[in-house]
């Protein structure tokens, strides 16, 4: 692929190669169940607890365990040699009424996505997180950032990206139909047909709503991609000069800290909260004041009154009549709403049941 010139005539050929590559990568990650081969990348057995899950990923000896110890008060062994942490150590941060589970994962090395140094286990546990913190060492060069990104991308994790805005629907007959609402510079019908035939798909409807690349189409066909927000935590900033810190400051999605001296840990928590994008909802029993100490935490994508009821108890919806809501999501205080109503952060909700 590196040797091929990129132009309109070769786009078709490159698309085909990319599809082949993605397919082979997937087969590497998920060995066939026949024969005595090992299973797919198994994660560490850590029960999910709390409202959200954050994973610490990074090379050995960048200060992941120190950070876990300072933020959660859990003990994870810290020493000056590499690979001190050998399994996954969980801890819990209580922040703004939410319980956030923090996982200290063992250090990964180059080639982790191909199974080196328990890398596959580390990355498959990272796939279950709601947010990933890539811990970098301020003294070591920023090339580490690229290496870790490459390892995670190779395992189907897309950092700080939105899922591609294109629809792909298989059908029984009628060949490949391709519609687009914008001018396409990367994909044409030939390339799409080549990619689809590689996956043995000969009948499908594909519609694009933006200028997508061959990689985006392959991601949608594969369907096993995870889109996870990510923060680059630059640790050990006490060992570099202010000028170097200003250069690092140009990185997007970045947060400088010193775990050992506890610098800027509040700023990091603030940023984790912002990236997790959680919604706090307070409950109000009838005739009493709202309970501001113990909010119900919902994710930003699923925050209707129905999701709120399910979070408390699954039988609640059977007796649901309507809800009274105080807060920024309604015009009147209180307002009667149905179960489709979307809630905002720090709303107060009272559920009225059928008698």
UniProtKB/TrEMBL annotation:
GO terms for biological process: cytoplasmic translation. Pfam families: MMR_HSR1, MMR_HSR1_Xtn, TGS. Residues 277-353 form the TGS domain. One of its GO terms (molecular function) is GTP binding. The keyword Cytoplasm does not apply. PROSITE patterns: G_OBG (PS51710), GTP1_OBG (PS00905), TGS (PS51880). This is OBG-type G domain-containing protein.
């Amino acid at each position: 692929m590196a040797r091929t010139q990129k132009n309109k005539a070769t786009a078709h050929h490159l698309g085909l190669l990319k599809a082949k590559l993605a397919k082979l990568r997937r087969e590497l990650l998920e060995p066939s169940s026949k024969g005595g081969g090992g299973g797919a990348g198994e994660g560490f057995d850590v029960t999910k607890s709390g409202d959200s899950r954050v994973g610490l990923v990074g090379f050995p000896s960048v200060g992941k365990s120190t950070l876990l110890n300072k933020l959660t008060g859990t003990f994870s062994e810290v020493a000056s040699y590499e690979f001190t942490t050998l399994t996954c150590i969980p801890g819990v941060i209580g922040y703004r009424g939410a319980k956030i589970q923090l996982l200290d994962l063992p250090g990964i090395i180059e080639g982790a996505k191909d199974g080196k140094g328990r890398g596959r286990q580390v990355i498959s546990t990272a796939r279950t997180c709601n947010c990933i913190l890539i811990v970098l060492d301020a003294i070591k060069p920023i090339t580490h950032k690229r290496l870790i990104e490459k390892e995670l991308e190779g395992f189907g994790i897309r950092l700080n990206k939105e899922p591609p805005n294109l629809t792909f629907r298989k059908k029984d007959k009628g060949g490949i139909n391709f519609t687009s609402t914008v001018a396409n510079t990367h994909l044409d019908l030939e390339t799409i047909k080549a990619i689809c035939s590689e996956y043995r798909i000969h009948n499908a409807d594909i519609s694009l709503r933006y200028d997508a690349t061959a990689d985006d189409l392959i991601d949608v066909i594969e369907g096993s991609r995870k889109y996870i927000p990510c923060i680059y935590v630059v640790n050990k900033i006490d060992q570099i000069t202010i000028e170097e810190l200003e250069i690092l400051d140009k990185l997007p999605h970045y947060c400088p800290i010193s775990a050992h001296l506890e610098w800027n840990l509040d700023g990091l928590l603030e940023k984790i909260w912002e990236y997790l994008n959680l919604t706090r909802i307070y409950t109000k029993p009838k005739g009493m004041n709202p309970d501001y100490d113990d909010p119900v935490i919902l994710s930003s994508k699923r925050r209707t009154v129905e999701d709120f009821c399910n979070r408390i108890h699954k039988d609640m919806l059977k007796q649901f009549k309507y809800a009274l809501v105080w807060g920024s999501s309604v015009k009147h205080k209180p307002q009667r709403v149905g179960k489709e109503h979307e809630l905002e952060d720090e709303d107060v909700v009272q559920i009225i049941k059928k008698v």
